[in-house]
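just leaving the lab so this will be short. below you get a single protein, a line of residues and a line of whole numbers that encode the local backbone shape. id like you to explain what the token line says about the fold, in plain words if possible. thanks a lot i owe you, the record is right below:

…
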Amino acid sequence: QVYIVESGGALVQSGESLKLTCSAVGISFGSYAMGWYRQAPGKERELVAVISAGGSSISYNDAVKDRFTISGDSASNMVYLQMNSLKPEDTAVYYCNARKTIPPKRQYWGQGTRVTVSS
């Protein structure tokens, strides 16, 4: 059974930091790419950051590069998103995603955690 649960969302002021946590039960980090996505009101869901299966590479959305850091702990099946220098445009629901990269391909989503950045 797979469970993806995010936590850590909050209301913060512009310029502050926040750390999101994703608990990914039933997922093998060696077979799944782990990513954070976000969806702002009225906009499509977009990729924020992703760690490749096995952790050999990391990619970021240009809008968050140099401010956000994704990390993972395969021993505890946790994925983190450290967000610094938050901006109002970072306001969104943040989702954790696990995507299996080898057949049979599948993916799982969490319910999301809301981040609101006030100016």
Observations:
- The chain has no helices and eleven strands.
- The mean pLDDT is 96.
